[in-house]
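Kindly inspect what follows.
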Amino acid sequence: MELVIWEEHMTDNPIDGFFLKKEDFKFIGEGLQRPECILAEKDGTLWSADARGGVVRIDTNGNQTIITQSHSAEDFQSSEDDAQKFVDGTLPNGLAFASNGDILISNFGTDCLERMTRTGETTVMFDSVNGEPIGKVNFVCRDSKNRIWITISTMLHDWPKAINKDLIDGRVLLYEEGKGVRIVADDVHFSNECKLDKNEEYLYVVQTCGRNIARYRIQEDGSLGTKEIYGPNDHGRLIDGIAFDSHGNLWGTHVMNDGIFAIKPDGDLHIIFDDSNPAEVKMLDDAFQAGTVDAELLLQCGGSIATWCASITFGGKDLKTVYVGSLRATNIPYFQSPVSGLPMVHWND
């Protein structure tokens, strides 16, 4: 397994010996719905995806404002059924800032990539590729060349049916202004969040149902090289979100069997926080291996801090405040990291 080794990695790793307990977390926000992805700005403002059809803005004083997408309030309504509401309706999922400050939204319910102004005016950027529906769009991120990377978890709308060890129909799309959108990878085992390393040499993609993280070398024209696994081949748990710190550790979340981990530059897995229990882990693993996972079973799983941990976001002026997004909590847990996060591209806009 090839690994990226940056010069600063030769020093001691600041996360060695770093572990979290439940009492280490603080919380911000209230009444949030499906705060899957969190964006942080330099001034401390947070933006959280929200299942009511838009985002919630939380200012530095903790005041929050829901900004509803112009097309969402009347056109799409989430189901009241606990299982069905994770499949239908408008489900803003991954978020990224466009270069002008607009918010790019991968809508996991309507299966399209959207662009929303900070006052809610929304346009659909695209909902198809090569004349076909794009599938279950999950996440979006932007790089320093203003290219937009989009992950497609599965081509099945009823996504819980794709939580198995055999179906591999996830994709990565690349959107470039003036060139449109194209498929750059079609071999992802339920693709989830994706991030680029410090030098933007590789695109790292969570394979939720591969239970590992893949990476692809980015070619000059934006095409991707051969997939390789970064870190453990199988975490034994489903994975959702990832984020790099400034030392080159790749932080991530285990979802349903909730927890936070980091993959060190040498490939070793470091468990930072585990909010699961052995019986729950075995129940989900047994169903996963048997191909019997469904929404009802998933709803029996989840920790108490960030139920169904989904994303990791470094924020604060020193990028050492870490926010945890989730699918089922109604607030945002956060904690202090011993190392700063790698600045996202919007940090330098």
Q: What stands out?
A: Confidence is low (pLDDT under 50) at residues 1-10, 72-79. The first strand starts at residue 26 and ends at 28. The chain is about 5% helix and 40% strand. The helical segments are 72-75, 278-290, 295-298.
